[in-house]
Write a structure and sequence with these properties.
The chain is built from 6 helices and 5 strands, in the order H-E-H-E-H-H-E-H-E-H-E. It is an alpha/beta fold and about 190 residues long.
Length: about 190
């Protein structure tokens, strides 16, 4: 039954979300009122055309690494989004079996293995309020550790931060099942070399 529900949510998400954002505005609104002691991690600026969902997340049309790299040629940072449901089981911070493919895809797009990388994880607005921020912080740390291992980088060489539910995706109805699923996400920012 759980698998059926996941498949249905995946179909709803895939059909309901374009593979590239429709807006040219960059949404950077973060509700900082509930964030205390946030690690001193700067979330990079990015261009909307350099934003995409890693395949098996929410994109109906996953792109190849060469297509993605072609789009990124004129930007300082790329921004990859990975559905939290691809990486983690509900309310858990342990990577799932299927997370390996998403991590491998992210790593395959990184041309410079020493490029600055920032991992930012988010939770949806459901679930206990006091667990949202700690869970997103744990997930950011686990994903950053996995990326470091996959890239043969030193421990803690990738910045990581969890924002809880303070920065939902703009234009998404966060009160729906599909909207909640989209907001449970991790973002990987990668500095692009000119």
């Amino acid at each position: 039954m759980f698998v059926l529900v996941c498949v249905i949510i995946g179909i709803i998400v895939a059909v309901g979300l374009p593979s590239a954002p429709q807006s040219t505005e960059r949404s950077s609104a973060v509700d900082l009122s509930r964030l205390e002691g946030l690690a001193d991690v700067v979330i990079p600026e990015y261009e909307d055309e350099n934003l995409w969902w890693v395949s098996n997340s929410a994109s109906a049309e996953p792109e190849t690494a060469s297509e993605i790299l072609g789009k990124l040629a004129n930007s300082k940072y790329s921004r990859m989004l990975i559905s939290g449901d691809v990486l983690f089981a509900p309310d858990e911070s342990t990577l799932t079996e299927r997370s390996k493919q998403a991590i491998d895809e992210v790593v395959s797009t990184i041309v410079d293995p020493q490029a600055k990388v920032v991992v930012v994880c988010h939770s949806s607005s459901d679930g206990p309020l006091d667990q949202r921020l700690p869970l997103s912080e744990e997930r950011a740390s686990v994903l950053a550790d996995a990326l470091e291992a996959a890239m043969n980088r030193n421990a803690n060489s990738i910045d990581r931060v969890g924002l809880g539910d303070t920065s939902p995706l703009s234009g998404i109805d966060g009160s729906t099942v599909a909207g909640l699923a989209l907001n449970r996400r991790c973002e990987v920012f990668v500095e692009l070399k000119k």
